[in-house]
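Levansucrase
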Amino acid sequence: MDVTATEPVQAYLSATGDRLRADGCEVKIEDWGGVPVLVGHRGDFKLRWMATKLHLFTIAAPATLVTAAALERFSSSAMDYVLARKGQLRGMQNGVAVFPALVSTQIEPAAAAWAQEKQQVKFAALARPVAVDAVTGTAAAFRGKPALGFIYAAHLRSKLDAYFPVA
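Predicted structure tokens:
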């Protein structure tokens, strides 16, 4: 990640914040080691999810270049952040999910492929990493139907499409 973001990256992050607010998310900017990071959160409860509440976080940060390794590290940090905030009671009618997104004007093909491959899963917690090209608006992420966490799949796809629209 880089603390300096180009104009397209800043514009994309600002628009993402607007999309999150429009969907009823609580949105703030936090400092992660000198890097301003956009953090959005919402909680949803549905009976069809076996009466569970899902806490969904969207965490987006600027990057100079998005590599698979950088996206994996950022996703791990985002998951740790989410678990520290809302993961204490997960599995007891609570689940957490996160969209960790790195936004840049340069995305390595391996990073986009890694993001699209699968969601990352821990006990009652999952992450769907996103690699965003701020110039084209392309957002590479897993949008498929997973084996684990399938009851949330449609919800997560709709939120992913709302926050990171397909260009």
